[in-house]
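debug: dumping io for the single-chain case to check the tokenizer round-trip. Nothing else runs in this session.
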Amino acid sequence: MMVTKSLSRMTSICFQFCLLCHPATSIMLTRLFGNTQKDHWIFIYPIAFTVFLTSTTFFFFDYKSILIFEHELHFSVGLLFFPVTFSISNMMQYRYGVLFANTAVRYGFLGDLTLVMIAWLLSHIGERQDYLSVYDEIPTIMLMTFFFVWLSNTINFKLFSVMSGKMHPFFCFFIACLAAECSVSFLSVPVMMYQNHLNSSQFLSIAFIVGYKVFATLILSGIISVGINRNASEKTPFPL
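debug: decoded output
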């Protein structure tokens, strides 16, 4: 019960912060770039999805080793913001329908592919070896990203479509996102560890990453749920 209350309070504070920052940011951007159309989120969602997906692609093979109870666990840095992509794709489906979400995910992946391939090409043209060492692995990562994005988003969209309207929004977002993320973790983490010659604590590392994803998805789903409920009760625009 205390955990539920703490989560509710935390998500409410985050939502209030978004409400406070949004008007000030909107005024500043309007002064810089001029007036815009009313619905900004129809553009923000696909762009944000592409940005977070690209961050996963660029940093997928990088890792952070953490010592917990004398066990060295390995966390893929690229997976740090990966849970956000599923929450965004579900918000697109929730607000604009599955066709819009499918279209955004399709071109988000193509945008990711275009950006990283340009980075790969330019790193081979230039003479900086540090750039080349980073971007030389991009084609291999993109092949895996294609499979992981296809698998995880298929699971995510199917589960969310089945549960939407039948369950509380929190559980729709949480279950769909978590199932999709776990399906990727059990495949991607061993690949990352193999690439970096990390032979210790594979199962513990996977368990640690899944635990992180449970926590991250819990927070994201809570924030979204609070926003949806507030919007329904007060009939105010939902900024997420």
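debug: round-trip ok. The chain is about 80% helix and 5% strand.
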